[in-house]
Amino acid sequence: MNLNQVNKKLDSRFHGAVRAKLSSGCIVLSGELPTWQETVEACQLAATKYSTTHVVNNILCKEVKDIPMRMPKIQDSALDGRTPDVLIIGGGISGVSIARELSKWKLDILLVEKEADLALQASGRNDGEVHPGIDLSKGSKKHYYIRKGNAMFDDICRELDVPFRRVGQYVCFNKEFAKPLVYLYCLYRKKHDGISDTKLISGTDLKQIEPNFAEEFKFAISNPSSGCVCPYGLTIAYAENAVQNGAEIALNTAVLDMEVENGEIKSVTTNRGIIRPKIVVNAAGVFAEDIAKLAKDRFFSIHPRRGTNSILDKKAGAYMHSIASVKDLTISKTHSKGGGILHTVHNNLLIGPDAVETYEKENTETHKESIETVFSKQKRTMPKLSERDIITYFTGVRAPTFEEDFIIENGRKTKNLIHCAGIQSPGLTTAPAVALDIEKMAVQMLRRIQIVEKNPDFSPIRHGVPVLKDMDDKQRAKMIQKNPDYGVIVCRCEEISKGEILDALRSPICVPTVDGIKKRIRPGMGRCQGGFCSPLVTQIIAEFLGVPLSEVKKSSEDSAITFGRTK
Amino acid sequence: MRELVCIVCPKGCTMHIEQENDGYKVSGNTCKRGAQFAISEMTEPKRTICTTVRTVFPQTPVLPVRVSAEIPKDKIFDVMHEINSVVLEKPVSRGDVILKNVLNLGADIIATSDLLRQIET
Amino acid sequence: MQNYDVLVIGGGPAGLAAAIAAHKNGAKTLLVEREARLGGILKQCIHDGFGLVRFQEKLSGPEYAERFIEEFRKQKIEAKTLTFVTRLEKTENGFSAVLVNRSGVETVTAAALILATGCRERTAKQVNIHGTRPAGVFTAGTAQHFTNLLGELPTKKCVILGSGDIGLIMARRLTLEGAQVLGVYEAKSTPSGLTRNIHQCLHDYDIPLYLSHTVTRVFGADRLTAVEITKVDEKMQPIAGTEQILECDALILSVGLIPENELAETLGVQLDPRTKGPVCNAQLMTSSDGVFSCGNALHVNDLVDYVSESGEIAGENAAKYVKTIRKEIPIKAGERLLYAVPQKLNLNSNNQQTILYFRSRDILDGCVFKIIIDGQEVFSKKYPFLRPPEMEKLTVDFSKYQLSENSEIQLDIEVKSHA
After folding, report:
1. How far is B19 from chain C (nearest CA, A)?
2. Nearest 5°: CA angle at C290, between C289 and C292?
3. Separation between Cα atoms, residue A309 and residue A354, nearest integer Å
4. What is the pLDDT of residue B22?
5. Predicted ipTM?
6. Which of C255, C280, C309 is the C-terminal boundary of a domain?
7. Chain-wide mean pLDDT for chain C?
8. Catalytic residue at A131?
9. Which of A222, A413, A448, A494 has its CA 20 to 30 A from that of C29?
10. What's the pTM?
């Protein structure tokens, strides 16, 4: 599509309100539009899927309110004067996996994350599916990384001590007539796109595998390589392994500004001091465009897209054991998938997510309508699903570009910068493979200015907090003998002991908050949602830190749980 | 005439009270205690309070207590103030007096648990 | 491996009463409690009003519990505290239970089991509250734990959703401790808690009660900053345009209790969708032979006195339990009843002193409770009023009636005049 065609399309739709022009190899859109929905539509009109010529959105949207980035409260100089070899911005799955792979080298690695914990945005707010790539075709970065990433999961999860299960994915169809067409589609994917494990199964076979699925399914695409993993669990595990191998992770640290001279980042200002890194990796998720802008290397735009998932009680977890979705044979307007049902590694069911365009990068509020939309769709796959089994729900915000592809490349104008941007689904699946490539890119970039040697002490093995409930009685007894606190159950729903909570508090990245502990070892994740255990966990944290209860936070600095003694 | 819900027992009878010469006529009650409550509500409403007192023991930072007899309703917060100024430094038993004749109201503040006995000793 | 006649799971009022009754009936009994102290939720229920039926005294929760704990100790019944049951299995002669505590992992066996596992509170997400996920959303029980056991103030200014008893009690409790309770909001058009609690907990402290209102959203990225209150229609659906925002620092939920029967379910115990507790016969034996249920795990009681009573029934029968063939007929609760317990009658048991617990579905004035056997009214009792929050109890001698395997027992409420 050339520029004239783009402008023609924009004119016919927006009557001259928006113009596109080519600038430094990007399609820059400017003009004025009343709503964000229209703004996204204009950019999507101008964008070519998977293209590396990106749309940059400079449209003034009247609806968009200027919402400042959520900032950590702390202000100090803890990092002032630091000169790391690599500064990674963003503590999501991308940033931490890159930190871990780079820790194989003798490098000073610093990762900054503005939140109080890792994986607090998209990486902790998705369904944890390890995708097979059935919906991706050659030519995109997503496709390039998906099979590699998927194949790495067994090893990486073993190394990092993270539960992972290849439970298989079923895309279900209820129209028999579509079968020949879908068969050809699968064959094409298999031969052309290398989705080697994909196959069609009959409705009868599907019924045997998942007896609670809808009766009317005639056949399904089966992708046995699909799996599930705990997305924040994997993020934290990667980060801990990076730290064990010498990388440093600074939480509550936000990038505020950058000094760029002659196409080179000279310094990065944070709320904890000015850092002078040799190279910078932009893994800032929904803020990747903002970081690129600070680095004077903005050649793409992010349009946040939120999605809400519901978590169902483990009792509902028994209804099905795989990942499933229903395929409508109508043209879907949404770019991301319309959601599905997933049996998690912890044996809950996850229902969702939906996909809603939003300009609010950090608004993770949930809405009743999202739950209703998702449930009405997913009940078609499994009529047994009931909103009554919901124990909680959460919203995440994806960070796609308008080309709906990843950006894994060196800075186009700024030399000492690597972008890992536009990461959305299947970004969790691709992360292990992407991290390996960015590792290479970073080492190559650094080798221009210094010698880079292997880290002789690197160990790929990380041990998580032991999970006592998964042990057999003998093994469990042995553990309790060593540490009697393993025998004191604090969270009854998830069967988490005091010993495990103390282990999490002593883990390589200690986040001594109720949510920090919850994310690491799950107290409060069960059906009572912390009703019984939250006072106990708060108490254990307070004792561990030697502070009054009112000093213990739910997550951020301002999220106190109690206001001090009653008397 | 005044309508009143009895709080003596969980039944929660709705009672009607009428002034009659120097006394009151109560109807709607299903027991004697209800009538007594109704008259007391008209003359001097009384309540019990249950709360906690602070202790010096870290495992039991507060101990439950209550008043040994009902106190005037309008003195509740004054009595709370008195209770909140106490800090228990020694273990006490259930029924032990923590504050004698609080504010001269003829009621004591008594411990309602053996918690300190069980844990701290 | 230790062998017992009766294993009681749960050391709250139901479990304590059950263990004492089992022991007194000659059973070698073990009680397992996951917390460090016996007493269950009563430990944090420091308000009074417990024991009126049983002791004709107004006791506080700890006082009531400690009376039973003392009796339990006097009887020298074995208890394992800070001990968690991880697994229950049926064996040839009864059950085996895997227990985890500071000493390790231990398996014990018992001929009969009593599940006295209590209930849990419904959470914010279970009543469709949306918005952010800040600190400051507590169930009433959690707020009570912080306030009464840890001596910590969970709020300075809050809204309470739900007029269940714990919510009402906490409204008063927090007010006494200096917090401001902006109001108690109830989605139903009638209160859920006992009438006396509306009066002594809310009216006495000028705390407003708003019926047909609910909380639809919470705000605040870190700590809760406000809630959105919306009026609801007769079907409890929010009415658009009636939203109002109330600034506060906490939302306290008292939106219902759910009997905890996850252990029961692992044994295949059949649950009653009305009570969410096991389907039991008059001996409080569940659908699984030798498994008994009592207290709030069986159905949510309004008074602890009935919790103890059901514990005693379960305890006595568990002690006497010998596997026999059951001949059970259903006790059907009519439409006007929210539920009735027990749900079955075993014709091979002695049913002379059958205790029936029931609640009406709606507020009813001037009504008659009836037992109808095979179309014949055999028993009736007049009630000036029936309210769903208040549970009713009756003792019925079913042995008087000619009951056969084909008999039908129907419970009904006839309304003479509408409220």
Report:
1. 22
2. 110
3. 8
4. 79
5. 0.96
6. C255
7. 96
8. yes
9. A494
10. 0.95
